[in-house]
Write a structure and sequence with these properties.
six-stranded mixed sheet, single chain, about 280 residues, alpha/beta
């Protein structure tokens, strides 16, 4: 198992390999000065060579997580079995275009390879685990819940993906979840949040950093997806310090003022993270 946190500017897109299966989390594919959609697509194609992508998780429906062009390409290129997204209404062009892409792909599939939708709201589910998503992993859900769905950020999916082979580990997906929602998640789930690797909530914003959550998760490695010269100054210095007090390793895609992809995997009893160049930039 390994996790590739792609540099996609000020947004999020991560890819996970679990044996011969894969999952993509979020779909930001911007046109920007420091990375292009073609670079992102080529990198994903190289990373998933020989791997069946089982599903796409959209942690939210804002454009920095659910870029309609990214969703369209991922569904076309990898034909995943399922797509997962939070169940709430988002009245934006981006959300409408994303669901239009999903609808198109549902119509294109034949009866032997249908695209299954998982629309997530915990208060409407019988349990927090969805069975049958893949053979080499499990997915445990912690959010969203109607109780705290007071903003699009707090409608984010929070989920733990666990690889079940000997190289597997627990990876916590956090979206843009903010501190008031983390209060509730911690009260309800506490130690169940534990994971060796954690995606930093809200790109390393102060509003996503929650001390009790960090203690419950107790991550070895924290991965931050943020853009170079972020207009929001992500990740914030105080947030980096908080992560560094808990985790052995803290990595950001924009560290040092240069965008880079980060590949994270087990290294004995520890974890290592190394740069993974965009495919089009490899000589």
């Amino acid at each position: 198992m390994d996790v590739l946190t792609l540099y996609v500017g000020q947004g999020a897109l991560a890819a996970i390999r679990l044996g011969n299966e894969g999952i993509i989390v979020d779909a930001h594919m911007p046109e920007s000065d420091d990375v292009t959609p073609d670079e992102i697509k080529q990198t994903l194609s190289v990373y998933f060579r020989g791997v069946a992508v089982r599903g796409l998780i959209l942690t939210g429906l804002d454009a920095d997580h659910a870029h309609s062009g990214g969703v369209e390409w991922i569904l076309s290129e990898f034909t995943p079995d399922w797509i997962m997204y939070p169940k709430y209404f988002k009245d934006t062009d981006c959300a409408r275009e994303v669901f239009a892409a999903i609808n198109r792909h549902e119509r294109r599939r034949d009866s032997t390879r249908q695209l299954t939708r998982h629309s997530i709201r915990l208060d409407r589910m019988d349990g927090r685990d969805i069975v049958g998503l893949g053979r080499n992993f499990t997915v445990e859900l912690f959010s969203p819940h109607l109780e705290d769905m007071d903003s699009s950020n707090n409608c984010s999916i929070v989920a733990k993906i666990t690889g079940t082979d000997p190289t597997g580990f627990r990876y916590l997906v956090t979206g843009d979840t903010e501190t008031d929602r983390w209060d509730t998640i911690c009260k309800l789930f506490g130690k169940h949040l534990a994971a060796e690797v954690m995606a930093a909530a809200h790109h390393g914003a102060v509003t996503g950093a929650h001390a009790q959550t960090l203690l419950h998760v107790s991550p070895n490695t924290v991965l931050i997806s943020a853009g170079v010269d972020s207009p929001f100054d992500h990740p914030r210095g105080a947030v980096l310090l908080a992560y560094q007090k808990v985790a052995q390793h803290v990595w950001a895609t924009n560290a040092g003022g240069e965008g880079k992809n980060l590949l994270t995997q087990r290294n004995g009893s520890d974890f290592k993270t190394a740069a993974f160049p965009h495919a089009l930039t490899v000589a």
